[in-house]
């Protein structure tokens, strides 16, 4: 079968691998679409410390059940449309014992610590297979990345009417924008890319701030009557925006970090106390988040058309990654199609 493999930093290629055979309790999925994630870009650039090489990337996906291993539940059937929960938790650490598997100490994510799904087929335990009934295969591949943003919004406990700021509106930030406005929040999007800010506005952001030509903290203060946002969600993973979130926050604000930096960050720690802010982390997503996003996309099908930047066949997926690395600000989401051109349901170039 065809598969995309990152063999070393700045080295990605189309390879051939044996078609996997499902073990007992496993399901083989024939992939239809697989999205490139920001973690895949970091892996390609050699900036992801959790990845070893060679590595097949990909954990944002859609497909159909192709084969069933022995002992698989009768609720699954050949040809059934599915996505995959790509996080593999240990089941024994403190987080797992608290029923928070997304925060597992020993988590392994497909395409990061274990082989991903950017191939024609993959096998996973049946417990990680999620049936999807009413979405196109194309839109199903957006469930996982949007779910990360939806999970962050749940962590933030956003209330209707709150003025919130999203720092960084790449794919994860856009998920936050959608989830926050679904909660009735007044969303302010912040980024350094005019292109990304325009997409955020199309998806419901009420105001946008371009950090390349505006003082973000001053502008956020002005847009919130001098208070600052009561919720800030950091999705850029930059030391600057990590500090900015605390600096710009209102008294008693909630600051949620979704991105993470590759270097230590220094804070003005007195603000933690003087503002009495809550600082929260948000990691991955849960099965409940997947189901919430699925319903959202069913009700809001136009969102996918706005989010998806390019759809390429797997034969061109290596070059698509190189293009993204060369100009990351121009790309929101690349989907890799494992279908023939006549079968790309809902696809747009």
What is the SS-derived class? alpha/beta
Mean pLDDT level = 95
Secondary-structure element string:
EEEHEEEHEEEHHEHEHEHEHEHEHHEHE
The coarse silhouette is globular
CATH topology of the largest domain: Quinone Oxidoreductase, Chain A, domain 1
Percent of residues in helices: 25-40%
Hey, roughly how much beta strand do the residues contain? Answer: 15-25%
Full CATH superfamily name of the largest domain: Medium-chain alcohol dehydrogenases, catalytic domain
Q: Give the strand tally.
A: 17
End-to-end gap: 25 Å
- Oligomer state of the chains in this structure: single chain
Number of domains: 2
- Largest pleated sheet: 7 strands, mixed
Radius of gyration: 20 Å
Number of separate helices = 12
Low-confidence stretches: 342-349
Overall CATH architecture of the largest domain: Alpha-Beta Complex
At the first level of CATH, the class of the largest domain is Alpha Beta
Describe what this molecule looks like in 3D.
Helices cover 29% and strands 24% of the residues. The protein is α/β, with parallel strands linked by helices and 349 residues long. It folds into two domains: 2-142 and 308-343, Quinone Oxidoreductase, Chain A, domain 1 (Alpha-Beta Complex); 149-281, NAD(P)-binding Rossmann-like Domain (Rossmann fold), CATH 3.40.50. Strands 3, 4, 5, 8, 9, 16 and 17 form a seven-stranded mixed beta sheet that branches. Helix 4 (143-156) crosses helix 5. The longest helix is centred in the middle third of the chain and has 14 residues, at 143-156. It is globular. The two termini are 25 Å apart. Residues 24-133 form the Alcohol dehydrogenase-like N-terminal domain. Keywords: Metal-binding, Oxidoreductase, Zinc. This is Sorbitol dehydrogenase. It comes from Thalassospira marina.
């Amino acid at each position: 079968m065809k598969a995309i493999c990152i063999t070393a930093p700045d080295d990605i290629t189309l390879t051939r691998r044996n078609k996997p055979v499902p073990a007992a309790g496993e399901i083989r999925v024939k992939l239809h679409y697989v999205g490139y994630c920001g973690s895949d870009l970091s892996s390609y650039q050699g900036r992801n410390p959790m990845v070893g090489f060679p590595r097949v990337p990909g954990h944002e996906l859609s497909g159909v059940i192709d084969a069933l291993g022995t002992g698989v539940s009768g609720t699954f059937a050949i040809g059934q449309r599915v996505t995959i929960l790509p996080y593999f938790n240990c089941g024994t650490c403190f987080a797992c014992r608290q029923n928070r598997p997304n925060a597992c100490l020993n988590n392994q994510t497909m395409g990061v610590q274990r082989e991903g799904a950017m191939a024609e087929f993959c096998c996973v335990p049946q417990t990680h297979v999620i049936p999807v009934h009413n979405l196109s295969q194309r839109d199903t591949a957006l469930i996982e990345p949007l779910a990360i943003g939806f999970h962050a919004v749940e962590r933030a406990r956003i209330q209707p009417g709150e003025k919130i700021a999203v720092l960084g509106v790449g794919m994860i930030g856009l998920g936050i924008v959608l989830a926050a406005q679904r909660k009735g929040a007044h969303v302010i999007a912040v980024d350094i890319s005019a292109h990304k800010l325009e997409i955020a506005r199309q998806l419901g952001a009420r105001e946008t701030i371009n950090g390349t030509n505006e003082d973000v903290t001053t502008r956020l203060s002005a847009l919130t009557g001098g208070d600052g946002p009561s919720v800030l969600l950091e999705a850029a993973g930059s030391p600057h925006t990590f500090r900015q979130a605390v600096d710009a926050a209102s008294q008693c604000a909630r600051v949620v970090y979704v991105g993470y930096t590759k270097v230590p960050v220094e804070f003005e720690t007195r603000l933690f106390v003087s503002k009495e802010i809550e600082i929260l982390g948000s990691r991955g997503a849960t099965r409940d988040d997947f189901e919430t996003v699925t319903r959202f996309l069913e009700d809001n099908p136009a969102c996918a058309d706005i989010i998806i930047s390019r759809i390429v066949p797997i034969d061109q997926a290596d070059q698509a990654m190189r293009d993204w690395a060369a100009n990351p600000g121009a790309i929101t989401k690349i989907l890799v199609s494992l279908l023939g051109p006549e079968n790309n349901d809902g696809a747009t170039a």
